[in-house]
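Lecture notes, continued. The same structure-token format from the folding unit now serves as the input rather than the output. Read the line below as a description of shape only.
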């Protein structure tokens, strides 16, 4: 196996490992609701109907990150955002890179992880600049380091460049 291929595979494995560790460390532990809260919630919903939130996370607006609005579609959250990121990443085009970029700073950790994986899957070097910019906006240093590693991976020369 070519040493360059070994290096690329090693770096890819390291990036995926960092993303997995970030997902495990950042997954919130949800405490079990007490029976009192269940009865209170049941009484409230019986007296006035409430809309069901679209996202299971603490923030329901995927466009808001650290007080600023990104260009991510405000109508896409949860599974819809994950589906859109996946569909954009398998287009393997330069045009899809800026469309994936807003999801790198989404409040939902799963959407951010999918966007990171989507950038790597797309493989375009222009994604590196978006990853570095998003890393500066993130508060979690582990997740920011994963973004930087992914940017470095995308900036590696292609094996096709050496033929």
């Amino acid at each position: 196996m070519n040493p360059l291929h070994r290096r690329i595979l090693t770096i890819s494995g390291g990036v995926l490992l960092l993303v997995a560790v970030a997902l495990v460390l950042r997954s919130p532990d949800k405490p079990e609701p007490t029976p009192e809260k269940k009865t209170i919630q049941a009484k409230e919903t019986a007296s006035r109907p409430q809309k069901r939130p679209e996202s299971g996370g603490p923030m329901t607006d995927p466009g808001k990150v650290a007080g600023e609005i990104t260009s991510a579609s405000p109508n896409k959250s949860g599974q819809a955002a994950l589906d859109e990121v996946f569909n954009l990443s398998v287009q393997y085009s330069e045009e899809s890179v800026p469309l994936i970029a807003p999801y790198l700073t989404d409040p939902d950790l799963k959407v951010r992880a999918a966007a990171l994986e989507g950038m790597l899957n797309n493989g375009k070097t222009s994604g590196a600049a978006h990853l570095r910019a998003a890393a500066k906006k993130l508060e979690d240093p582990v997740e920011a380091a994963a973004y930087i590693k992914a940017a470095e991976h995308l900036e590696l020369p292609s094996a096709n460049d050496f033929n």
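Point for the exam: The two ends are 15 Å apart (CA to CA).
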